[in-house]
């Protein structure tokens, strides 16, 4: 289809020389080319900038491709944040340095958003590959998936409670969502893709499409798809909870400044409920109050809808300050039983 709306691709780079050219090729080979591609290099110390400039020159892309070198190292969160604020296109696609886009990514997602004007954020599926480009399954992201291009609406509960592979590199947003960014300062607890998801849901316009749009590379330099989680001790969990409380206050503050005429009231009610839930969990880690067990029971439907029963048990033990005790008992029994059979 042909549209008058402008489309931008924002790519953030830092020392990405190993996989960079393959990604650049996938951008150039899109069946629907973007109106412009801006690449923000975060002070790479390898040959990333040289690779990009050579590619742009070789394919005569100077009119639509632009390379910006940051005056100082920003980090990936700030790099994406600044890139988005400086973009004024109607549709924005986020791009990482080491993935491979399917040729029809832009055309499929753009057509879907035009055919469904209520869509403000669209999430495509990802296929995972290793460093050599071989297909792999990570965290069951691709297990038993039948691609039918069906679009599904996501509410704020889907975006704020459940972690799924809805990440920026497989996402497209409308400028309506981007315009709300001004109410959210760049924050370590709220990356660009997460605020896009949650804002899109609050505006009642967050959707996913059951169609793969990128090959997402998983390698030792990639932190998103790690399959192991460190078991934190009590002090570390308290420190983490303080950070979460700060993040929750940040999110609540930003949402309070958004255009209330755009926010869906039902989504906003769910949002407030989620904030209360996470605050209760964070506060309970810092200070044991048995009464909080009853407060947590008020969220039992939430656990049924979004979490496993094990998480409910863990949270109860945390509130009662018994989590580490149970963990120690499990460790003791495991080693004792294991020792008998060794």
Task: Please tell me the CATH architecture of the largest domain by its name.
Answer: Alpha-Beta Complex
* CATH fold-type name of the largest domain: Spore Coat Polysaccharide Biosynthesis Protein SpsA, Chain A
Tally of strands? 9
Task: Name the CATH class of the largest domain.
Answer: Alpha Beta
- Low-confidence spans: 225-229
Main sheet properties: 9 strands, mixed
Mean pLDDT: 88
Q: Which structural category do the helix and sheet elements fall into?
A: alpha/beta
> How many individual helices?
13
Percent of residues in helices comes to 40-55%
Give the CA-CA distance, first to last residue: 66 Å
User: What is the assigned CATH homologous superfamily of the largest domain?
Assistant: Spore Coat Polysaccharide Biosynthesis Protein SpsA, Chain A
How does the overall form come out from the CA principal axes? globular
Helix-strand layout with pairing:
Blueprint: E1 7-13, H1 20-28, E2 36-41, H2 48-58, E3 65-69, H3 76-85, E4 91-95, E5 100-101, H4 105-115, E6 121-129, E7 151-153, H5 156-160, E8 171-174, H6 175-178, H7 192-202, E9 206-217, H8 234-257, H9 265-286, H10 291-297, H11 300-306, H12 309-319, H13 323-340
Parallel strand pairs: 1-2, 1-4, 2-3, 6-9
Antiparallel strand pairs: 4-8, 5-9, 6-8, 7-9
Helix pairs in contact: 8-9
């Amino acid at each position: 289809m042909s549209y008058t709306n402008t489309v931008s691709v924002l790519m953030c780079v830092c020392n990405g020389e190993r996989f960079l050219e393959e990604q650049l090729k996938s951008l150039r080979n899109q069946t629907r080319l973007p109106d412009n591609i801006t690449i923000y290099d975060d002070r790479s110390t390898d040959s990333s900038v040289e690779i990009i400039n050579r590619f742009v020159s070789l394919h005569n892309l100077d009119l639509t491709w632009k390379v910006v070198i940051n005056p100082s190292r920003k980090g990936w969160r700030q790099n994406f944040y600044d890139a988005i604020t400086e973009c004024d296109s109607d549709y924005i696609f986020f791009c990482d340095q080491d993935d491979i886009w399917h040729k029809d990514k832009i055309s499929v997602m753009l057509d879907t958003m035009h055919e469904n004007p209520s869509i403000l954020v669209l999430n495509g599926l990802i296929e995972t590959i290793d460093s050599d480009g071989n297909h792999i399954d990570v965290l069951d992201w691709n297990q038993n998936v039948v691609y039918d291009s069906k679009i599904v609406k996501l509410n704020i509960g889907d975006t704020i409670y459940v972690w799924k592979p809805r990440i920026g590199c497989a996402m497209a947003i409308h400028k309506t969502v981007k315009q709300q960014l001004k109410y959210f300062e760049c924050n370590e607890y709220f990356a660009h893709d997460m605020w896009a998801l949650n804002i899109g849901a609050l505006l009642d316009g967050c959707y996913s499409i059951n169609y793969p749009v990128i090959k997402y590379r998983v390698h030792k330099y990639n932190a998103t798809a790690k399959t192991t989680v460190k078991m934190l001790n009590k002090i570390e969990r308290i420190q983490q909870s303080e950070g979460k409380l700060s993040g929750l206050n940040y999110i609540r503050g930003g949402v309070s400044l958004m255009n209330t005429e755009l926010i869906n009231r039902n989504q906003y009610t769910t949002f407030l409920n989620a904030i209360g839930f996470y605050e209760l969990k964070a506060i309970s880690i810092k200070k044991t109050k048995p009464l909080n067990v009853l407060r947590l029971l008020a969220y039992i439907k939430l656990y049924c809808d979004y979490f496993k029963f094990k998480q409910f048990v863990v949270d109860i033990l945390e509130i009662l300050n018994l989590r580490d005790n149970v963990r120690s008992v499990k460790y003791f029994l495991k080693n004792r039983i294991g020792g008998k059979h060794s």
